[in-house]
């Protein structure tokens, strides 16, 4: 099949379409929308009575239906499924109350930024009962020739059945126990979450997403566990070409271990301070893009602390006695006291200041932070060993293999339709997962990807600094909401409620208010095992 080396004239011309807000009977206040879409009333009516009558091929899974910006027609069945989503989310839950979100900006003052970023652990998901630690992401190869891909929804070679663990956060805690055994998360962190949860909450608070989201929440000590809803029917949906593009461009070298090559995803666990909260965040990694592995051993079964590229390796002391997964509390100073230990975020920082993937805030953060003592690296597990951790509620198999890839080498791979503005920019995802490298590939009609001089790996460090300044209002709301939820869940635990559900959505009638409903999930399996 011959592939075009350049777009046909019909596609190469800049095409303006109707404003999606006006097509859906809403007001449009976006200046950028006026530059890329027409807003004339007669043209909008012509669109709705002619091309817009065609049925949307994505059906009820259409992301634009979720945000009320689809240009095509959806039958009542599609719209009914969307309306039923919230009912499905709350089935089996007991409503408790609705949080007051009208004062979020008042509750969060000062410049909000992320600071004291450090890497704690990494792992690959091998199966629903196994992980590889430290694991390794696949290697990314930029597009060098034209590529034609089916839409992910029609691509039968893709697998969307990902591992589901009995306790969703167990892989996170097990990997941290192996790679950072001196870190006791429950003694040190305020919030444990997935980066995707923070991103989705951000988009809701920014009124960029109309879709309701549910989160499962628990409190362990003073630490809030914020997990996605694992029964969400949209978790395995992929509406574009992104999964197929990753399959073609992100691959493991042939000399990597078979367990890594057949693993389903790689994850990084990081710690940082956000809006005065000490956060431990897990995020999925698409790939790495660098030549660091050429300067390292090909594979290392050791679970060693992360070492920055170009920085001296820390000395490994004499192995400590006891279990390698044993956790130690970290005191602020001197002997143990009643004061709450702090996670040594700054001491675990990986990168030299000049190479750090964290973003220096343009304005000072007014939230005071407590000093943290340095951590002494502990001895890794012996090489070529696997560990089976078993207890009453679950069993997980840890394969000790992989290699450490420095954070600056990790890359986010995105795709979007050419000449169309993406529904969401990748900035929030990059920000909360602490990525700076981005490869954003446009595709044309029939899933055609074309290489070109403009299709390169981008360094988004500077752009994310700008984004952080421009999004201060929403970031302040997010920090305040997280604190509010943490306080409320702690209060509910004191009243005997063990497991909490949150449903977050936009208010009715375009009020600009975000609704956060709190539910009792009842008893059941926890987000982490009892022995963690």
Automatic annotation (TrEMBL):
This is Uncharacterized protein. It comes from the Eukaryota. Residues 318-336 have a biased composition (Polar residues). Residues 301-380 are annotated as: Disordered.
